Amino acid sequence: MNKPVCLVTGVGPGTGTACVRRFAEEYEVAMLARSEDRLTALAEEIPTAHAYPCDVTDTELLKQTIAQIGADLGDPEVVVHNAVGGAFGSFLEIEPEVLERNFQVNTMALLHLGREVAPKMIDNGKGAIVITGNTSAFRGLANFAGFAPSKAAQRILAEAMARDLGPKGVHVSFVAIDAVIDLEWTRKRWADAPDDFFCQPADIAGEVYRLAHQPKSAWSFSSVIRPFGENWSLNS
Questions:
Q1: Rounded mean pLDDT of 99-106?
Q2: Annotated domain spans of the chain
Q3: How far apart are CA 92 and CA 89, in angstroms?
């Protein structure tokens, strides 16, 4: 393979797929998701996208998958951790197992992913790990008890990684999406909302790509993006 390699977790119909499309213009992209059918369809459509069905909460499978990607394509220069576990409900309403599962997807998977890819990036003196998050990482609203704690932990873990890896030439960044992403189910839930209420997955992917390619003299760790009409829910 002559192209650099990008690994994207959580390749769903929105942000994950948009990131694959953006990076596939210049990278060989390894796509991770539980849905083999979705990955296969994308791989058939995009010649530089490659399907690796994987549940990121299965630590041994994740390690094996990353090793297989290295053998097939080469070691990833960019990693986008987009896999997400979410749930709505108060702390009295959610099942504790739901929060535990979301920690596995959002936080522990990032830890295991970083431990697998960072050593090679350090050896090469370059690399980027970008985590897609949201404003739940900054405040705990009542009905986000099954979700926000895991995203806050994810952001803090990402910052710890950034402080460790930055001096070694590896850029870690966290992009918080303060928005409703334009998806089929969100269009149904907010059926009366105008088009510009929604954040477009392709535009999110553009920000992820930008963060992954910032010059070393001006790295960002935290990026918050929102549609122009958003009410800045980070402050609410």
A1: 92
A2: 5-235
A3: 8
